[in-house]
Design goal:
The chain is of the alpha+beta class. It contains two helices and ten strands, in the order αββββββββββα.
Length: 175
């Protein structure tokens, strides 16, 4: 009988220890995810961003009544920003986080199909290079890939939700 009581006490202690360990791990993991989210939302910006699609890591912010989406790639050190134009076409820019000479333009060896060189521009703070693009048409089911003198990016827009931006363009036509 003493053996059974001791065995039950041992099992109960083991179960309680497992529950405490499981709960501790859960809260530790939640805290780490929250830190990661906060770091991503504040990466390479002085302004506040919120999640538009947390699963796909897309952020949103409104500037002068117009929504802008962004996605940060902390591992590769860049952020992609996109917005919709009046004709529903997509414009965007990439921000490569790196020290540079403020407001200087860098001509890369990479060229457009017409032979014009692709250029990176250092921002006013001298902490990032910018590269802007505008795509024709309203299609957003494509992947943006660039290689600009060692600065490269790859972003697949297929799963980005542009419906809010499209709605804003439509509503702006009524004004």
């Amino acid at each position: 009988m003493k053996f059974i009581k001791a065995l039950l006490k041992g099992i109960i202690a083991l179960v309680l220890l497992s529950v405490v360990a499981g709960v501790s791990y859960y809260f530790y993991d939640e805290n780490e995810q929250k830190k990661k989210d906060e770091k991503e939302l504040s990466y390479a910006t002085d302004t506040e961003w919120v999640w538009h699609d947390k699963y796909h890591r897309i952020q949103i912010r409104e500037v002068e009544g117009k929504s802008i989406l962004r996605k940060a790639n902390l591992r590769k050190g860049y952020v992609v920003y996109v917005y919709k134009n009046e004709d529903y076409s997509l414009s965007g820019f990439a921000k490569f986080v790196t020290p540079c000479s403020a407001n200087k333009e860098i001509e890369t060896a990479d060229k457009f199909s017409d032979g014009t060189p692709k250029k990176l521009k250092c921002n006013e703070k001298g902490d990032a290079l910018l590269y802007s693009v505008k795509w024709n048409g309203s299609d957003t089911d494509f992947t943006w890939e660039e290689s600009l003198g060692g600065f490269s990016l790859r972003e697949n827009f297929t799963y980005w939700d542009f419906s809010k931006l499209d709605q804003e363009v439509t509503l702006a036509k009524a004004q």
